[in-house]
# Entry
Amino acid sequence: MSSLWNTVLKLKTQIKHFAVPVRHLNLLEYQSKHLLRKNGVAVQDFCMIDEKGCSEFEKFNVKEYVIKAQILAGGRGKGHFSNGFKGGVHVTANRNDVEGIYQKMLGHNLITKQTPKDGIEVKKIMIAESVTIKRETYVCILMDRQRNGPVIIASPAGGVDIEAVAEKTPHLIKNIPIDIFEGVTDSMAEEVATFLEFKGSLKNLAAAEIKKLWQFFLTVDATQLEINPLVETDDNKVISVDAKINFDDNAQFRQKDIFGLEDVTESDPREVEAAKNNLNYIGMTGNIGCLVNGAGLAMATMDIIKLHGGDPANFLDVGGSVKEEQVRAAFNILTSDKNVRCILVNVFGGIVNCATIANGIVGAMKSMKLEVPLIVRLEGTNAVEARRIIKESGLNIQTAEDLDDAAKKAVQNVI
# Structure
């Protein structure tokens, strides 16, 4: 098996459900905090500043300020900006210093270990109230396939990599399944708070926060809610300082406000366009564009291209219920990649009608000037009719007898 297989497996999290595109909604930190606060969970007070000049800072007065660049990447505190400014997270008690700090962040690229080489442009800044942390704990609610339902994972060792805690000190991890009918009961919340080593009145506060986190988990159709850390402050408060939230993609129809928060400015525009058209697209580094129906066939197509010495430019699965307009959209996405020097269409008609694909191809080529060779292999439902449509179109389309032939022709066109 070629090394491409390993590459494709790494993409698994982005294409878990092959028939329906999965968006894997990612929210910026301030958006997660806003949702938590809106649902009654205790978080630090904060305000926002953006590059458009919208500022809530004038009315925001606290003893100490935390200025945090908002991008979808970790390691911000240790990062650096394209203008030479160090750190995407700063703390100051001097209100007069705040503007000077965020002005050095806004509009500049922040570079961390998790960003591209050139970094990500910072368009929003969150200014939060600094809290003095006495202790950090960890609480997570997630859907567990092994338990066939939600579980609470808790640890008194918060603020660090929880995987390392589980590996080195497993006794500091507690895993409690949640009955979906009973939910998180008072006794369960108190049990977790006790395990987290909250004492006295703080134990009651922590238990109350744990119950609020469960209600939030239900309300927003979350699949994971990770609070790391849930802290005890020096003024006897229990606060969720940082949160990671994953949402059920299937609940998009009833969580429109939340999914409407998605910031796609950091995403590959081709992937954004594909999602709009219900296509699964992931860009790669090769020069042979692939349009295939079905994830398994798509992976096999990319693998056989590699077998013959070629290099696929993408994973593109049009699915089983594709329409002609989606095929045209797929061609627009493929041709927007300047590295693509040839396009290979490989369709095995089962649910999908090959004639639909053929009409989409012909329509796309008539509406755009395709400057790269096009190889088409169609088999299955209405394949004979599909070949007739392509042949009578009079367009410069190369047909292939089978997948092996198609891959060979594609590679020959880019050598």
In short: Residues 201-219 form the longest helix (19 residues).
